[in-house]
User: Fold these one by one.
Assistant:
Number 1:
Amino acid sequence: MIEVNELTKRYGGTTAVKDLSFTVRPGRVTGFLGPNGAGKSTTLRLLIGLNRPTGGTATIDGRPFRDLPRGLRHVGALLDAHDIHGGRTARAHLSALARSNGLPGSRVDHVLDEVGLAAAARRRIGGFSLGMKQRLGIATALLGDPPVLLFDEPINGLDPEGVLWVRGLFRRLAAEGRTVFVSSHLMSEMENTADDLVVIGRGQLIAAESVTEFAARGTRSNVTVRTPDPAALTDLLTAEGADVTTRPPAGDLLVVTGLGATRIGEVAHQHRIRINELTTGSASLEEAFMELTADSVEYGTGDPR
Ligand SMILES: Nc1ncnc2c1ncn2[C@@H]1O[C@H](COP(=O)(O)OP(=O)(O)OP(=O)(O)O)[C@@H](O)[C@H]1O
């Protein structure tokens, strides 16, 4: 369990995080979302004691990270994948960490295998691609088999196969009862992975809730309907109170708001109008994110915090 309470961090005149409070529960994947510069990395750094807060607390299982002996056994973190000594091999890097944290050497092979780097174990990290560095960072986080895991933008640099793998890994870690906290500035990366979301903008909390609850905040969700009889269906759905727009180029695609897919199907069936496609809008999560964070995007506003 991660608990952040009234957390504030100022760097000179910049307030990176302000009065931030939220909880991250075990057994779930929690996405930590916000536009660039929202304060995500700062919060994660405060959580693992790399920086000291100006005010408030950040605790892991009730204790500040600094108070946890043999840190890697309690919390695993991937922060900056580039921040690793490039002259060492992957195995030497992990072995040194295992030794300093009192972990058995067998964990090194286990995590190298887990992240798909076993074949590259004896290569120097300096020659690794960004994706390989991300995998090594994830191996480092997993080394101590910790109950709490933090990942800062872990998907950066991964290829599509890597993205699928990392999603599966997060889900599995959560299913094992661990607390999995993953930052991203893209909702699309989180919508298929996270159970819960913590959304921040300009260092302040915007939302902390389940993905389902978050999605319900967005602009009314829409339903896309493909039909060979768009004019007739538009009239019927409009009469039911829906807003209907026609999508070019063929004109057979309608975007309906204000009426659910079930009712649209019933209306079409009653009037013997054929439907070739009926899809509830999945863009609503992205829309909710954009809407909620629109006022807090750092670049382009020029407002002081
Ligand atoms: N060491 C520092 N010194 C001064 N300002 C900093 C420092 N670290 C972060 N900031 C500022 O604090 C704010 C939050 O930055 P942070 O890196 O935490 O955001 P982020 O949400 O992780 O962004 P991104 O998605 O771009 O990584 C930014 O305005 C940033 O410029």
Number 2:
Amino acid sequence: MEGGYHRSIGLFYFCGMEILIQNIKGLVQVREKSPRWVAGVDMAHLPVLENAFLHLKDGKIENYGAMEEMPLINADEIINASGRFVFPSFVDSHTHLVFAASREEEFVYKIKGMSYQEIAAKGGGILNSAKKLQQTTEDELLERAMIRAEEIIGFGTGAVEIKSGYGLTTKDEIKMLRVAKRLEENTPLRVKTTFLGAHAIPKEYSDRNDYIKLIKEEMIPAVAAEGLADYIDAFCEKGFFTPEETEDIMEAGKKYGMRPKIHANQLHISGGVQVGVKTGALSVDHLESMGEEEITALQNTDVMPTLLPGAAFFLNMTYPPARKMIEAGLPVALATDYNPGSAPCGKMPFMLSLACIKMKMTPEEAINSGTINSAYAIELQNDYGSITKGKVANVFITSEIPSYAYMPYAFGANLIDATILNGEIIRSNFFSIPE
Ligand SMILES: N=CN[C@@H](CCC(=O)O)C(=O)O
Ligand SMILES: [Zn+2]
């Protein structure tokens, strides 16, 4: 067995560890061959193997099957999961989890009746977060983001996308993205990064074109030179960036190898969906405001519609029409949008509950959305998002629950009892972790 140094906790660990989880009540999202996504009526199907075993070796899924067919396995660690379900870890494909400070003063304004746009116009919102982030050092930001990373691991997340967009100057955007990269080095999370310089226009720009020029001519090349971003994003919304500006910025990013992922149709029908389709975006995200035309535009494309019900919940807005999208044959992905302004919550199981309760998705559809489909939304579907031989050994074990549907049903409950990432036991509260 080979040893190694644990990046996050500074402890020696056995990276060649073999783990056998046996007597699993239900092994969820078992796919012999991983699809790139599931769409339309197929979203209602969630493959679950009852009374199963799962064998993890060298950080990968080695084998799984029915208990009565389990071969002899010489594992270092044997976990008895009777009464429990094992899920592939969630993939959270849209977050802003690097930020300097929370914004609960705006929360109170919202309670008193101010809208998201009114708060932004008063210098709150994204510009408020940018001001605080500019005054925070890279190391301080990392320290704060590490706490959130540990938090989401406890909620069952194993891979995450993190955006910039609270820097709004070249040096501060780079600072945010460096922190996101350092999170991957310092935690067991798989991290994908997105450059979101086009999140808001800073106050000091009387001509918005000057800021857009800065994004295209200075920020994008600087971010690319350090290899800091996989994707490029813009907040395509009234009062933020127009569809034409969004398209221009997406095309500029593409020249540097960054594929678009767009904030689209959150507050209005913004044209963001059509720009996403036109620029070959990997995903269009939010989609609270969708007409027939937007749904039709997404059909027969490779763009993943990504729903962020935590933002609609927090802002008390209409939820995306998930049923209409699924009935139109589209896939949908789910993510948290974890950020200090519109969704201060990184808990994927709660997103599943909101998907079911508020968007009328079934538990099967919600689980497919937060695993295999959200993996596609950050191009990780070949390695994450399902229990498939050869994929990364990222799983969690639930507490003793009656069914997998209990996960979205018991909203807010903490139902995750153990987490294994990259084949390492990260935490457990029902068996002791080997020294
Ligand atoms: N909508 C734009 N960006 C974030 C919110 C940012 C903020 O208010 O800080 C979102 O995805 O909801
Ligand atoms: Zn967002």
